């Protein structure tokens, strides 16, 4: 065998060995989602050194009424990853686009009970339980997977503004405050922290949402040793 061929063969044999050693030493690189909206920084003195932990904003507790007429609260979301959005049933285009995309998310995780969808109406005075039920059925929403909520308007608006921290520079829909009207879908983890924000009318963005829900599920599985 010529020296040149021997060098090529040796290089080919060496590559997988080096790859194995790299993975053994440094582990497999794993994509991790960021956490949004840092609230405070907590400092602790440990053995003479200060350690800092960022505390993140959490979606507050709430209690509203679902499309089935049942009371629904943050307690019903314990141990779940969920996607939240704000809409109303007479929205001419944007809300229907968002609901169509959310139906895709529901289908993608139909066998994952730890993933849930929550849609809050911005017009509770017109979106009664019966109206929400018909709207939910038009998008094949499974009540065990996708909850539509109505209730006191001040509570819902406060939740949009201060709970999910949604803002919008301008309103495309009449009679909806610009600061709460948004095309956004919000991904919330089991600790009630925001882990992703997406354009709910963009199919590519919703593809990213589906991917990142899977990433978050993997994070929890790894943390639980699964």
Task: Please characterize this protein's 3D structure.
Helix 2 (94-108) packs parallel to helix 5 (203-223). This protein is an alpha+beta fold and 226 residues long. It has two domains: 1-30; 56-223, Glutaredoxin. Strands 4-3-7-6-5-8-9 form a seven-stranded mixed sheet, with helices on both faces. A two-stranded antiparallel ribbon has the order 1-2. The protein contains five helices and nine strands; from the N terminus they run αβββββαβαβαββα.
Key structural traits:
5 helices; alpha+beta; 226 residues; 36% helix; 7-stranded mixed beta sheet; globular; Glutaredoxin; 2 domains; 9 strands; two-stranded antiparallel ribbon
Topology:
Layout: H1 3-26, E1 38-46, E2 49-56, E3 63-66, E4 71-73, E5 81-87, H2 94-108, E6 115-121, H3 129-138, E7 146-150, H4 153-163, E8 184-188, E9 194-199, H5 203-223
Parallel strand pairs: 5-6, 6-7
Antiparallel strand pairs: 1-2, 3-4, 3-7, 5-8, 8-9
Helix pairs in contact: 2-5
């Amino acid at each position: 065998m010529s020296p040149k061929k021997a060098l090529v063969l040796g290089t080919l044999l060496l590559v997988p060995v080096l790859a194995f050693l790299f993975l053994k030493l440094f582990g497999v690189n794993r994509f991790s989602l960021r956490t949004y909206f840092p609230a405070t920084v907590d400092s602790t003195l440990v053995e003479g050194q200060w350690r800092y932990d960022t505390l993140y904003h959490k979606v507050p507790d709430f209690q509203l009424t679902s499309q089935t007429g049942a009371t629904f609260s943050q307690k019903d979301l314990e141990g779940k990853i969920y996607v939240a959005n704000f809409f109303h049933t007479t929205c001419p285009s944007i809300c229907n686009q968002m609901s169509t995309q959310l139906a895709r998310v529901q289908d993608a995780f139909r066998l994952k009970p730890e993933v849930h969808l929550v849609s809050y109406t911005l017009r509770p005075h017109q979106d009664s339980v019966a109206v929400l039920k018909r709207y939910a059925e038009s998008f094949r929403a499974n009540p065990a997977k996708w909850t539509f909520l109505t209730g006191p308007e001040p509570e819902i608006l406060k939740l949009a503004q201060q709970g999910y921290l949604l803002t919008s520079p301008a309103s495309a829909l009449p009679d909806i405050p610009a600061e709460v009207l948004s095309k956004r879908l919000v991904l919330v983890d089991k600790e009630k922290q925001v882990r992703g924000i997406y354009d709910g009318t963009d199919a590519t963005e919703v593809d990213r949402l589906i991917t990142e829900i899977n990433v978050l599920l993997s994070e929890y599985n790894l943390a639980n040793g699964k």
